[in-house]
Structure formats: structure tokens, C-alpha cells
Write a structure and sequence with these properties.
The structure holds two protein chains of two kinds. The relative contact order of chain A is 0.16. Chain A is α/β, with parallel strands linked by helices. Chain A has 16 helices and 14 strands. In chain A, the strands form three sheets. Chain A has a six-stranded mixed sheet with strand order 3-4-14-9-10-13, sandwiched between helices. Chain A has a four-stranded antiparallel sheet with strand order 1-2-12-11. By secondary structure, chain B is α/β, with parallel strands linked by helices. Chain B has a nine-stranded parallel sheet. In chain B, helix 1 packs parallel to helix 11 and helix 9 packs parallel to helix 11. Chain B is globular and about 45 Å long. The chains are: A alpha/beta, B alpha/beta. At the A-B interface, strand 2, helix 1, helix 8, strand 11 and strand 12 of A face helix 2 and helix 4 of B.
Chain lengths: 393, 257
């Protein structure tokens, strides 16, 4: 396969203005990923600053309650900044610094990536501007304030639907002007090559740790690895080291919003078609003319009309399966996790838990499954309360 | 080769852009006719897209107006055919790749040929990816226009290798829109491009006033104006043809002076 291609997916569908920079980024990345000093520095940050390795926690109560396979939770919610996003931002911000950049820009949906990017920028003395849809700013005000506390500027995006895809558009527009001193710290395994590769590599620490942790505690590979998928960075990170373990099922959970038979969902694989957008060939929610469709999910982090190209490839080749999970299922799983294990997970991660609740009872008890808990749920508490009809002040 | 070349035979070419179907199919038709009447040499019709990442606010809003007016690809084809019935002026489509890919790249280019569209510009299809569509373009005699940016330097030979029609030379970094100053050293960029191709070079992005048009056309073979025209549509809506006519005439006379 050509670099940057995953079967027919991936590629570099991006204006000429940015092509030179993508080529420069790819060669810088290829150099630094083999550079000993760079890796020592990054690993030290991951260990001492981000709190890695993250726990692989055996969820005994959930296991008993579901009555099937032994359930393990990969606790990315325990990372500094509260999600898996820190893995990627530390890597990319360090790379940006080495490339001589003075400023990073980032898109954010739920605000998790924005918070992580702002954090890494502060730590590494880079300026940081985060683009965020106006809709998302409303439903994630806690994270907006966190970013501002961290010294970042949050730039509201009111074009289009005012959500994640529009934030990506606006970040790309900024980058096409500011590329000389600015790095676009893309938050997911999407966009033009080399981003899907870079983000996957930085996130693959999730699966690398999980694989050795499960081998240690169970003595064998898990039956399945389950993760939520918007753009798909935590899922790609969790899956990547298991791809060659053919016996391990890889399961991605997409946001079905109010249902895949309604127009209000963000289930790209279930309802989308192959297209070209945001620099990549992949699956997208689009109309018959190729216009990108507005999508919806209770989860701002999954509210994106596309999916990373490597996920499209894993889907097309049958290596991974993708299932839609509705808002209602995700909210129930969010509550279930809180009451069973005392863990308030992100509503994004609750999509993975919701699938596990349906799936685990059918998996034999001598097997295990790993669910990636991509982030913690503090940011979601008020919107879940309002979903249940309670308004928090 | 299409009839785009003929537009560069005499004077500096004036290439005018509008988003197709903005503010409505009927007005868009009138606007295009007025542009042709007042001396635009090549018409670029933008196919409205939900997420035009290379566009500034002016053209973003135009795309939105067109989409809200119910403009589809089929209607853009109809508009093109209507223009074709009254004029032979070269027509170029500017479109993001997804609508083309979704229609079927080969089918799209064949459709262009059928309705006498001379060329196509796809801002999100750089040299690295253009083999997806270039063979169909060559077959059909539809020019696939290349874009050269201020950051392209090392890449210029690769970009202009198969160039036909005209080279779209992006004057400035960033997105489309009117600019007060254009900082790029255009002469250096143009000279570099000319080392590698004989295809005419048109400069676009940011051109607004007749003075700018005149100045930027010095080293190039033509200039492209989009946002300045589209902002008149934003301002005057269905009454814009007269204003656009006046504006186009002012640019044309500056280019000929």
C-alpha cells in the first residue's frame, strides 16, 4: 500500500497551499519517531505528566451483573486532562516544537481535545488557538472555561452547523494562512496523510499497554476490544496492536443519536457512503449530491459526519465491526457504569459500554473483553441531567 | 485542449467567478450573461458545496445561499446549458472533489464534455491525487486546471507537468477573499512556473480594485476575480447584474489600458 493509503481510503485531498507543509510534517515525523532523544522526552512526559500507563481495571461487578465474559476497562479517563487525547497532543506538540513552530491550532468537539491541546501548549510554551462550534460551546461550557484557564483562546465557529466538522473547516482555513509558524494539532485519526498515521501511532500506546496488561492478568488475548468511534482516535489506538491478533474481535461503536432510521444521527458506517472530505477518502454522511450532511449525537465528541480512513479500511476488509448506539442506550450505559463501578465515564465512552451491555452476556465466561473508557464524564453531567429532565444550576 | 486557450490570445484574460445558482438559478443566469456582455473572457462557475474549506466568508455565504435556494448539481448543469445556448465563452467549473466523486469522476467529466464545459478546478485535489481524474479529462478534452500556491516552489515542476487550460496561481496564503495588500513576490513565482510550462498563468485570490487587477496582470496572462463579484451579489441580490456589469467593465478597461 502507498504511504497514507489504507486500501482505497486515506490520501491527501487538500488545497495546494498546504501540500508542502504536509510533506514537511511527514518527513519530520518519520525522522523524530526514530529519534532516541525525542522518544525519551515523550515517554517521560507520558509517564510523569500524563500518568501513563493507564490502568486496565477488572470490572468485577459489571462482570457479575452481565454474566458473560470478564470485563476489563482500559482507564484512559484517569489520564491527565481526563481522556486519551493527551497521548496524541503531547506527541504532536513536541513534534511541532522540534519543527520550530510557535503556535498550535486545534479543532474540538466535546472540548476534550481542545483541553488536551491547550495543556500541551502551555507545558511546551506554544501559543494555542482552539476552534470550537458555537453549538458545542453551549453544551460543553465547562471545557471552554478549562481551555481559557489553560491560556488558550477559544474561537467560536458559527459557520455551517456550528459543530465539530465546522471547527475542522475553520482550523484548516486558519492553517492555510498561518502554516509558516503554526502546527495544526489534529485531534483524531482523520484528515489528510500523514495525520491519520501520526495520531494512530501516538494513540497506539492504549492498545500496546492493554495487550500486555491483559496477557498478564488473563494469560491470553481478549475475545474482543470495544471502543467508541467518532473520528476514531481512541478506537484506533486501542485496536492497532491487536490487528494482527486475528482471534481478537475489534468493535467500534458509532453514535446513532435518535436512531439510524432518523435523520438525527452520526453513524457514518451505518448510514454513510464513501466520499472525499477533510483531506481523506473515507465514509461520510452525505446526501445524493455529495453535500456533507448535518449530523447529530448527544455526544459532542462523536458528532462528526466522517470516520478515519483506517477504520473504513478495517470495516471494508471485515477486520473490525461497527455498530450504532443511540443516545438513549448511551445514557443508560453512562448511568449503569456510575452505579455499578462508581465510574462516571464520558458520554462518548458510554457508547462502547452500551454495546458491551448487549454483547458481553453472549460471550463465554472464560473469555475477556476490553472496553476502552476514552474519557471521564464530568463534562457531561449537566447535559445528561437535562436529558433526564433535571436542570442543574 | 479546450477553447480556453483562445481567451489568452489577445489581451490579458479576465476570468470571473460566481457561485452557480447564487442567489437563485434565474439571477445567476442573468449575472453570468452580464459578465460576458461586459467583457469577462472566461466564466468560472462554482458548484456550491456544504463545506468549502478553501473559501473565505464571502464565498462560503454564497454557497450557502445557493444551497438554501435548492441548487443541486442537476440545476448547475441546466444553468450551464442555458449559458451555452447564447454564448461560446469558455466555462470552467470550480468544485470540491466530493460532488464529483459522488457523481462518478468519469461520468462527471463526460457530462462536462457533453454540455461544453471547458475545464475544471478542484481545489482539494492536489497533484498527488489527480490521477484519479486526469485520464478522464484527457480523454474528454476537458482541462484539469492546476493550482500553484506561494508555498509550491519545489513542487512546481510536478504540478505543472500536465497543465492545460491555465495555471491558477494563488496570489496569497489563506482562503479566498478580497485583500488590501498582496504580499507574495508574484514575479518570482510566475518566472519559476514559466520555466516549466507554456500554459498561460492567471492570478487569483484577493483581487478587488481595477488598480490591483492592472498591477497583478503585468507579469501574468490573466487575472481571476471571485469574492469581489460575489460580494456584489450578497449586497444587491437579484438586483446585482447591473452593479456587476459596471464593476466588470471597470476591471476590463483597467486591463486594457
Amino acid at each position: 500500500m502507498k504511504p497514507g493509503r489504507y486500501g482505497v481510503f486515506g490520501g491527501q485531498y487538500i488545497p495546494e497551499t498546504l501540500m508542502s507543509e504536509l510533506i514537511r510534517l511527514e518527513s519530520a515525523y518519520n525522522m523524530y519517531k526514530r529519534d532516541r532523544a525525542f522518544n525519551l522526552e515523550l515517554n517521560a512526559l507520558l509517564k510523569n505528566y500524563a500518568n501513563r500507563p493507564s490502568l486496565l481495571y477488572y470490572a468485577e461487578k459489571i462482570t457479575k451483573d452481565l454474566g458473560g465474559a470478564r470485563v476489563y476497562l482500559k482507564r484512559e479517563d484517569l489520564n491527565h486532562t481526563g481522556s486519551h487525547k493527551i497521548n496524541n497532543v503531547l506527541g504532536q506538540a513536541l513534534l511541532a516544537k522540534k519543527m520550530g513552530k510557535k503556535r498550535i491550532i486545534a479543532e474540538t468537539g466535546a472540548g476534550q481535545h481542545g483541553v488536551a491541546a491547550a495543556t500541551a501548549a502551555t507545558l511546551l510554551d506554544l501559543k494555542c488557538d482552539v476552534f470550537m462550534g458555537e453549538e458545542d460551546i453551549k453544551r460543553q461550557s465547562l471545557n471552554v472555561y478549562r481551555m481559557e484557564l489553560l491560556g488558550a483562546r477559544v474561537i467560536p465557529v458559527n459557520s455551517g452547523t456550528g459543530t465539530l466538522k465546522d471547527a475542522v473547516n475553520e482550523t484548516m482555513r486558519d492553517w492555510s494562512l498561518s502554516v509558516e509558524d503554526t502546527h495544526y494539532l489534529l485531534g483524531s485519526v482523520m484528515g489528510p496523510h500523514p495525520f491519520p498515521m501520526i495520531v494512530r501511532d501516538f494513540q497506539s500506546i492504549i492498545g500496546r499497554e492493554a495487550r500486555s496488561q491483559i496477557l498478564k492478568s488473563e494469560g491470553k488475548l481478549p475475545h474482543a476490544v470495544i471502543a467508541c468511534v467518532g473520528g476514531g482516535s481512541n478506537a484506533m489506538g486501542a485496536f492497532y496492536r491487536f490487528i494482527n491478533d486475528k482471534s481478537v474481535k475489534l468493535i467500534g461503536c458509532e453514535a446513532a443519536g435518535k436512531g439510524i432510521d432518523t435523520t438525527e444521527n452520526a453513524a457514518t458506517i451505518a448510514t454513510g457512503r464513501i466520499g472525499v472530505f477533510h483531506g481523506m477518502k473515507s465514509y461520510f454522511c452525505q446526501d445524493e449530491d455529495g453535500q456533507i450532511k448535518p449530523v447529530y449525537s448527544i455526544s459532542a465528541g462523536l458528532d462528526y459526519p466522517g470516520i478515519g480512513p483506517e477504520h473504513s479500511y478495517l470495516y471494508a476488509t471485515g477486520r473490525a465491526q461497527y455498530y450504532p448506539i443511540t443516545d438513549e442506550e448511551a445514557v443508560c450505559a453512562f448511568e449503569y457504569m456510575a452505579r455499578q463501578e462508581g465510574i462516571i465515564c464520558a458520554i462518548e465512552s458510554a457508547h462502547a459500554m452500551a454495546f458491551a451491555m448487549k454483547y458481553v452476556p453472549s460471550v463465554p465466561r472464560d473469555q475477556s473483553v476490553i472496553i476502552c473508557i476514552s474519557g471521564r464524564g464530568d463534562k457531561d453531567v449537566s447535559s445528561i441531567a437535562s436529558y433526564r429532565g433535571r436542570i442543574l444550576i | 485542449m479546450s477553447n480556453i486557450q483562445t481567451a489568452f490570445n489577445n489581451n490579458k484574460a479576465f476570468i470571473g467567478f460566481v457561485t452557480g445558482g447564487d442567489p437563485s438559478l434565474e439571477s445567476s443566469f442573468e449575472i453570468i450573461l452580464k459578465m460576458i456582455e461586459k467583457g469577462v473572457d472566461i466564466i468560472e462557475i462554482g458548484i456550491p458545496f456544504s463545506d468549502p474549506v478553501a473559501e473565505g466568508p464571502i464565498i462560503q455565504k454564497a454557497d450557502l445561499r445557493a444551497l438554501n435556494a435548492g441548487i443541486t448539481l442537476t440545476k448547475i448543469f441546466e444553468l450551464t446549458q442555458k449559458v451555452r445556448q447564447v454564448s461560446n465563452v469558455p466555462i470552467v467549473y470550480l468544485t470540491y472533489y466530493n460532488p464529483v466523486f459522488c457523481y462518478g469522476s468519469q461520468q462527471f467529466i463526460e457530462k462536462c464534455k457533453e454540455i461544453h464545459v471547458d475545464g475544471i478546478i478542484i481545489p482539494d485535489l492536489p497533484a498527488e491525487e489527480r490521477d484519479e481524474i486526469l485520464p478522464y479529462c484527457k480523454n474528454a478534452g476537458v482541462d484539469l486546471l492546476c493550482l500553484v500556491a506561494p508555498t509550491s516552489f519545489d513542487r512546481i515542476p510536478k504540478i505543472v507537468k500536465d497543465a492545460t487550460g491555465y495555471i491558477y496561481l494563488v496570489s496569497s496564503m489563506g482562503v479566498t477573499g478580497v485583500r488590501i495588500y498582496i504580499k507574495t513576490n508574484l514575479k518570482k513565482l510566475i518566472d519559476e512556473v514559466r520555466l516549466h510550462t507554456n500554459t498561460p498563468i492567471a492570478v487569483g485570490f484577493g483581487i478587488n480594485t481595477p488598480e490591483q487587477a492592472k498591477a497583478l496582470s503585468q507579469d501574468a496572462d490573466g487575472i481571476i476575480i471571485g469574492s469581489a463579484i460575489v460580494s456584489l451579489i450578497e449586497q444587491f441580490g437579484e438586483y446585482s447584474p447591473a452593479h456587476i456589469g459596471e464593476y466588470v467593465a471597470s476591471i476590463k478597461s483597467a486591463l486594457n489600458s
